[in-house]
Amino acid sequence: MKINYTTIAACLFLSAVTALQAKSIKFPEKDPDFSFKLPEGWTVEADKDGDLVCKSGDAQGLTLNVNKMGQTFPQVKEQLPDLAKTFTKAASMKEVESKDLGDDTNKNGVKGTIYVVKGKSSGQGITAELLAIEPKEGGDAYFLMFSGLAVAMQKHGDDIGAIVDSIKVIK
After folding, report:
1. Measured CA angle at 43 (ends 116, 122), to 5 deg
2. pLDDT, tens digit, for every residue of 62-76?
3. Is the CB of residue 15 less than 8 Å from the CB of residue 28?
4. Superfamily per CATH, domain 22-169
């Protein structure tokens, strides 16, 4: 049997290229309203309610939670400070600072708002970026939260920006 090394090399190259591509996620799974892309190496798990927990997969891990709220954009936006307080208590954070960064749209025209909370837990800096997004005007809004050690948030700053910019309405 003759082995065609060119074909094998081409297959290996294509499989490597495919593995490097971003993973596209549609949310919610049933009747999705939007999609977003996760960088190479990220994992995704759905909980019993269909909400997502996405992780960067490296030693300085970053977590992205994606939740369907069943509420309007103003309602979810109003809850961001309370959701931030819940996070700071769960993480036993001290020296907490928070800031509302206001409303904006991403490069695909998806409306959102960002609320940032920073503090320390067990002597380490922790940061969370909480977002309310409205993929379809007047439709359901969603809650997203990027969280991790401050060094992980800084390391993955470009990933966070790319994920937010990749959010796109599914028509």
Report:
1. 45
2. 999 999 999 999 999
3. no
4. Mog1/PsbP, alpha/beta/alpha sandwich (3.40.1000.10)
pLDDT number for residue 111:
96
What share of the chain has pLDDT > 90, as a percent? 82
Amino acid in position 74: P
**What pTM does this model have?**
0.85
- Domain borders along the chain are 22-169
Amino acid occupying residue 24: S
Three-state SS string over 34-59 comes to: EEEEECCCCEEEECCCCCEEEECCCC
Q: For residues 108 and 71, give the distance between their C-alpha atoms in angstroms, rounded to a whole number.
A: 22
Evaluate the CA torsion angle 88, 91, 96, 97 in order and state its sign: negative
Give 90's strand partners. none
